[in-house]
RNA sequence: GGACAGGUGGGUGAGUGGUUAAAGCCAACAGACUGUAAAUCUGUCCCUCCUUGCGAGGUACGAAGGUUCGAAUCCUUCCCUGUCCA
C-alpha cells in the first residue's frame, strides 16, 4: 500500500496511482487528517475518497504510529493518548473510541484500532504493560465499532503488539483473536530494531492469525523483504520507503539501488530500470533524472515516486501471479539465489 | 588622466594583529531514511605523512617587499577589477 498520510501519496496524482501504477488501496492517517484539515470537514465533503478524488480503497492508520514517531509530543494513559499538536501545540485526546469515530467520518474502508507503537529497545515489563494496554484499547475500539458499524461498509483491524518478545506477541495475538476481526495487523516493527528481529517477530506471529483473513504487517519493508513476508502468509504491507526514498534520490530497481545523485549517472543514457515499464523508465534517461534531482526540480519527485511505487507494486504483482500459477516456491527460490535479494548492503554497483 | 570602492579556498561571502586551514551559504562528493513533524537529515570537502589523533608537517587570503614575538588583517610599491568624473 502506498502511503498517503495527509490524503495524498506525495508527488503523485490519483490519476498516476490509477493509470500508471494501478494501486488498489492507499493508506492515510487519522492523526494527521484530524489535525488538518479536520475529519468533520472531510466528512462534510462526502468523505476522504471524494475529498482526495481517490475511487479505490483507503486504509487509515489510527495514530498509533505517532505514539512512536511523535513520542516527545504525547502522553499515553489507560484512557488513550494525549497529543500536543506538532502544528500548533493544541492538546487532543485520542481514545480507542474516538479514533474509530474519526475513521468512520473519513469514510475509511479499513480502519485500524488505536494501539501503542513502542520503540526499540524496550524492556519485557514495559512491553508487556504496553501490549496489555493495546489489547484493552482494541477491545474498547471493537465494542464501540460494533455499535456503530451498521450502515458503514468498513472493516476494523486490531494490531498485534508485544515488541521483540515472542511470548508477548503470542499472548497478544491469542487475546485479539477473540475479537474475530475481519483482518489482523502486526505492528510495532520497523522501530529501530535489526531487520532479522522484525522478520523473526513476523515469523512468530503470522502463523497464529487466521489464514482466511488479511494479514497485514505495518511499516515494512525493503523490496527484498517483501517475498519473505509473503512467504509467511502476509497479504498486506505499507511503507514510506518507496515514496520517501524516491524524493531523497534513492531509487529501487531490478538491478539494485540507484542513488541518482552519484556522478556515475551524469552521462548515463540508459533508462532507470530497463526491466520496468513505468512512465519514468519508458521515457527518461538516468542522466536526466540526475539532472532533475540536482536542480531540485519538482518533476524529479514525481518521476522518482512513480517509479518506486510501481517497482514495489510490480514486485507484489509478480508474487501474486506466481501464487496463482502455483509457482511461488520457485519464485522464492529465484529471489534467494539472486544476489539482489541477499540481505541489504551487498547490492551490485 | 582623476576620484572612490574592492581583490579571501570550486562559487558566493564573513573575518580588519594572536584560540584562523580561515564562519555561513551554494556547488561537489558519500551516506541515512522502514504504520511520513522528511522535496528531509548526516558526513566529507588545500596537499602530504603516520602510531588515524580534537595527530605531525607543508602550502594558502592579487604580487613583491616591510613593520611585529606574531599579518588575510598594519605600511610601501606594483598588478588587476568595478563604479563615477574628465
Q: Which key terms come to mind for this protein?
A:
349 residues; alpha/beta; 4-stranded parallel sheet; disordered C terminus; RNA-binding
Going by helix content, strand content and strand pairing, the class is: alpha/beta
Radius of gyration: 20 Å
The N- and C-terminal alpha carbons lie at a distance of: 28 Å
Percent of residues in β-strands = 5-15%
What does the largest sheet look like?
4 strands, parallel
Order of helices and strands: HEHHHEHEEEHEHEEHEHEHEHEEHHHH
Give the low-confidence spans. Answer: 341-349
Oligomer: single chain
**How much is the average pLDDT?**
95
What's the total helix number? 15
Report the strand count.
13
Helix content: 40-55%
How is the largest sheet built, in terms of strand order?
A: 1-2-6-7
Describe what this molecule looks like in 3D.
- This protein is of the alpha/beta class.
- The protein is 44% helix and 13% strand.
- The chain has helices at residues 14-20, 30-35, 39-44, 48-52, 64-69, 96-106, 124-148, 166-177, 195-205, 226-231, 241-247, 279-283, 286-294, 298-324, 328-337, and strands at 25-29, 57-61, 74-76, 81-84, 91-94, 110-112, 155-157, 159-160, 184-186, 215-217, 236-237, 250-253, 256-259.
- It has a four-stranded parallel beta sheet with strand order 1-2-6-7. A four-stranded parallel beta sheet has the order 8-9-10-11. It has a three-stranded antiparallel beta sheet with strand order 3-4-5.
- Strand 10, helix 10 (226-231) and strand 11 (236-237) form a beta-alpha-beta unit.
- The longest helix has 27 residues, at 298-324.
- The protein binds one RNA strand of 86 nucleotides through residues 1, 3-6, 10-11, 27, 29, 32, 59, 61-62, 64-66, 68-70, 73, 86-87, 112, 115, 117, 159, 185, 187-191, 195, 198, 216-222, 225, 237-241, 243-245, 247-248, 250, 259, 261-263, 294, 296-298, 300-301.
Amino acid at each position: 500500500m502506498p502511503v498517503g498520510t495527509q490524503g495524498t501519496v506525495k508527488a503523485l496524482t490519483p490519476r498516476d496511482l490509477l493509470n500508471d501504477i494501478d494501486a488498489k488501496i492507499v493508506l492515510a492517517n487519522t492523526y494527521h487528517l484530524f489535525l488538518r484539515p479536520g475529519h468533520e470537514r472531510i466528512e462534510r465533503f462526502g468523505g476522504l475518497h471524494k475529498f482526495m478524488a481517490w475511487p479505490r480503497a483507503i486504509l487509515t492508520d489510527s495514530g498509533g504510529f505517532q505514539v512512536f514517531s511523535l513520542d516527545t509530543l504525547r502522553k499515553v494513559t489507560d484512557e488513550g493518548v494525549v497529543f500536543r499538536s506538532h502544528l500548533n501545540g493544541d492538546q487532543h485526546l485520542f481514545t480507542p473510541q474516538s479514533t474509530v469515530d474519526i475513521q468512520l467520518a473519513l469514510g475509511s474502508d479499513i480502519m485500524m484500532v488505536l494501539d501503542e507503537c513502542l520503540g526499540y529497545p524496550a524492556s519485557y515489563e514495559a512491553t508487556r504493560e504496553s501490549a496489555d494496554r493495546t489489547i484493552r484499547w482494541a477491545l474498547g475500539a471493537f465494542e464501540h465499532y460494533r455499535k456503530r458499524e451498521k450502515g458503514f461498509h468498513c472493516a476494523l483491524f486490531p494490531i498485534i503488539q508485544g515488541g521483540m518478545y515472542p511470548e508477548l506477541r503470542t499472548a497478544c495475538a491469542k487475546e485479539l483473536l477473540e475479537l474475530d476481526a475481519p483482518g489482523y495487523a502486526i505492528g510495532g516493527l520497523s522501530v529501530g530494531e535489526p531487520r532479522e528481529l522484525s522478520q523473526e517477530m513476523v515469523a512468530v506471529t503470522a502463523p497464529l492469525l487466521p489464514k482466511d483473513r488479511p494479514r497485514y504487517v505495518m511499516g515494512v519493508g525493503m523490496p527484498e523483504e517483501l517475498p519473505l513476508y509473503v512467504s509467511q502468509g502476509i497479504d498486506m504491507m505499507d511503507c514510506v520507503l518507496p515514496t520517501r526514498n524516491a524524493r531523497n534520490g534513492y531509487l529501487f530497481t531490478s538491478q539494485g539501488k540507484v542513488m541518482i545523485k552519484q556522478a556515475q549517472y551524469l552521462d548515463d543514457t540508459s533508462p532507470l530500470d530497463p526491466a520496468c515499464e513505468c512512465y519514468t523508465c519508458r521515457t527518461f534517461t538516468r542522466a536526466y533524472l540526475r539532472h532533475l534531482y540536482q536542480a531540485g526540480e519538482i518533476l524529479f519527485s514525481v518521476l522518482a515516486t512513480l517509479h518506486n511505487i510501481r517497482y514495489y507494486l510490480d514486485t507484489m504483482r509478480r508474487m501474486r501471479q506466481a501464487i496463482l500459477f502455483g509457482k511461488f516456491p520457485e519464485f522464492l527460490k529465484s529471489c534467494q539465489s539472486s544476489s539482489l535479494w541477499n540481505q541489504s548492503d551487498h547490492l551490485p554497483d
